[in-house]
Design goal:
Layout: H1 2-7, H2 20-25, H3 29-59, H4 64-72, H5 74-87, H6 92-116, H7 121-128, E1 132-133, E2 150-151, H8 154-183, H9 198-223, H10 232-259, H11 270-298, H12 307-329
Antiparallel strand pairs: 1-2
Helix pairs in contact: 3-4, 3-5, 3-11, 4-6, 5-6, 5-11, 6-8, 6-9, 6-10, 8-9, 10-11
Length: 330
């Protein structure tokens, strides 16, 4: 029965991803136009990013400009790597892992940006020292409403930064390890056996991802009211959107390909076709995000007011409310 089943499967569906020249040869007019348009989009994304880097380098002070350059590069880098993966299917392992390693650094840089908007680590600690932070946030503890509020301290601040930084370091280390194992034939995403390395490395990376997102959510949920004038909410939303599209969407498509839901289409196997669809969708999505982030970060914002200014403003508002209430009662 197994031999009969194998005889009905196109041999191309069991082969490795095709070479770049084979991809070009099998393209029809529509495929050629599609590939050309997506390549154009990824090139525009990269050019806009490079121009944005020059603008940020000239207009913003250090170290904020280096942080913003890192964050702005998330969508263009992912789009560029997706373009390489689309044209060279056998390089998808390297392009995906390059994008993931870059985004792991971006996760930490988003936390650094929120801190730098207050003036740096020392100013942040001075401003929020002793204040209690809500830690029942996603993705770890959004349902644990009974968790107590934790006072901000230097130790708490260090743990938040380390929680985000560990992902940037360990993700890169595990990526290098996965590539080494892949070259030796020991790492295969389609191998879901308990003895396979992918079934151990990928879930561990997932746990590291969740741990790294928790400190960002804690800082954002407790400080975003102070940063609304700097458009921190849409900036954070763009970072979250890139996370969902580059990690969750890709994982779902890979699962559908492994399950056979995404069928084989010679010269692409099911897994190679799923990767190709993922790369194409990623280019279009990252192109749109590049345009939006360019608009958000290219604007010049007023300097964030100090804590004393906020206290004076709140005191004046309260005094006006009290005065209005007294005059009304008279």
């Amino acid at each position: 029965m197994e031999e009969a089943l194998n005889s009905t499967i196109d041999p191309a569906c069991l082969q490795e991803p095709p070479l770049a020249i084979d991809v070009i040869k099998q393209l029809d007019l529509f495929g050629l136009c599609l590939y050309s348009m997506l390549t154009f989009m990824s090139c525009i994304s990269l050019l806009l990013y490079l121009e944005q880097c020059v603008y940020i380098y000239k207009k913003l002070p250090y170290p904020k400009k280096s942080t913003i350059i890192w964050i702005n590069g998330a969508a263009p880098v992912i789009a560029t790597m997706a373009c390489f993966g689309m044209w060279i299917p056998r390089a998808v392992m390297f392009t995906d892992m390059t994008s993931n390693c870059y985004f792991a650094v971006v996760v930490y840089k988003v936390l650094v940006l929120m801190i730098e908007e207050f003036g740096g680590s020392d100013v942040f600690l001075k401003r929020f020292s002793g204040e209690t932070f809500k830690i029942s946030t996603g993705p770890c503890c959004c349902c644990c409403l009974c968790l107590p509020r934790v006072p901000m301290s230097r130790r708490m601040f260090f743990l938040l930064k380390m929680g985000a930084l560990q992902y940037a370091i360990l993700k890169t280390v595990l990526t290098v390890l996965a590539i080494i194992l892949w070259t030796n034939g020991n790492f295969d995403l389609s191998d879901l056996e308990i003895t396979g390395t992918a079934i151990w490395i990928n879930p561990f990376i997932g746990v590291l991802t969740i741990i790294s997102l928790w400190p960002l959510a804690i800082v954002f949920m407790n400080t975003n009211s102070h940063l609304r004038s700097l458009n921190i909410v849409p900036k954070y939303a763009m970072y979250q959107l890139i996370l969902v599209l580059s990690q969750l969407q890709t994982s779902i498509i890979n699962i559908l390909a492994l399950d056979g839901t995404i069928t084989c289409a010679p010269p692409f196997s099911s897994q190679a076709r799923g990767s190709m669809l993922s790369q194409q969708m990623m280019i279009m999505e990252m192109f749109i995000i590049t345009l939006i982030t360019r608009f958000l970060y290219r604007r010049t914002y007023d300097t964030l007011p100090s804590e004393a200014h906020d206290n004076d403003h709140n005191a004046r508002a309260l005094s006006l409310q009290d005065g209005g209430y007294v005059s009304f009662t008279k």
